[in-house]
Write a structure and sequence with these properties.
Blueprint (H helix, E strand, L loop, with lengths): L16 H12 L5 H4 L5 H6 L2 E6 L3 E2 L9 E2 L10 H12 L3 E6 L10 H14 L4 E5 L7 H8 L5 E3 L9 H4 L6 H14 L4 E8 L5 H13 L4 E6 L16 H13 L4 E4 L15
Helix pairs in contact: 4-5, 5-6, 6-8
Length: 284
């Protein structure tokens, strides 16, 4: 088991007046950002570019993926329908130009949380018509009616992460989250023509091979995925899957070139890349 992080994964904590100002405003608005809760190393850079990832629908997930530190449990169908308004007002207050909405899986809700996703998009666009909104959703158990609710919201990017290669999916993700189910969601989203771009992401360092990564790219591209991101998996606690390999930056760059050669509109790859990193560049 690998424990020591290589130099390329060591980053300085975010600092600076702009970062501190935004941090205080986020705290005052009672806004939950994945940027802070996941201790993202790109936080200051993204906030400086007026980009952020907001987590909605609570902090208890009905799934139990072995790579994720989010609490697992039964939220008992509790949903905050005032949350979309608060998120919209917060985005307006902070002037964000690109917002990623993500959420825990909510298998306990009749619509899987799709309604709150959609209403949050509408609340943001009512206040900030030019702001781009990306919805990074779960798989909704493969229910395309629920996927359609999100697609009809007016979001700009529909994202759903494959997370890992086909072979490793059963040991990495919750048993209800299959590779083919995720691929079907991405295929449906692209075929709907409601999203300007469809996006997915892989974590590397779990024992996948380069051939498996390339095969995943091919399947994602065949599904119509436009944007593909690759980042390093980091073990959140000792209870989670160990890191098998710290993938060097040069390999990420090689994989980026490979992805671009396959026709993806954008490929973002690097040890510190997370699925929303440089997301706004797809529109430039």
């Amino acid at each position: 088991m690998i424990t020591a992080k290589p130099d390329w994964l060591k980053v300085k904590l975010p600092t600076g007046d702009n970062y501190l100002t935004v941090r205080e405003r986020v705290k005052g608005l009672n806004l939950h950002t994945v940027c802070q809760e996941a201790l993202c190393p790109n936080l200051a850079e993204c906030w400086g570019a007026k980009t952020a990832t907001i987590m909605i629908l609570g902090d208890v997930c009905t799934r139990g993926c072995r790579f994720c530190a989010v609490k697992t449990g039964n939220p008992r169908k509790v949903a905050d329908w005032d949350e979309p308004r608060r998120v919209g007002e917060a985005c307006q207050e902070l002037g964000w130009q690109y917002v990623v909405l993500t959420a825990v899986d909510r298998d306990d809700l009749p619509d899987g949380g799709a309604g709150i996703f959609a209403e949050t998009v509408r609340q943001i666009h009512q206040r900030l018509p030019e702001t781009k909104v990306e919805c990074l959703t779960g798989d909704f158990r493969g229910n395309t009616d629920q996927v359609q609710i999100v697609l009809e919201s007016g979001m700009d990017v529909f994202a759903h992460n494959l997370e890992t290669v086909r072979r490793l999916t059963p040991s990495v993700r919750d048993r209800r989250a299959t590779f083919d189910q995720s691929l079907a969601v991405l295929t449906y989203a692209k075929a709907s023509a409601k999203a300007r771009f469809v996006k997915t992401s892989l974590m590397l360092g779990l024992g996948e091979t380069e051939d498996e990564i390339e095969a995943t790219m091919d399947e994602a591209r065949a599904a119509g995925v436009d944007i593909f991101t690759l980042g390093q998996y980091l073990q959140p606690t000792k209870k989670h899957l160990p890191v098998v390999e710290f993938v060097p930056p040069e390999k990420f760059q090689r994989l980026k070139r490979l992805g671009l050669s396959k026709g993806f509109r954008q490929v973002v790859a690097g040890p510190l890349v997370r699925s929303s990193y440089h997301a706004e560049e797809a529109f430039q």
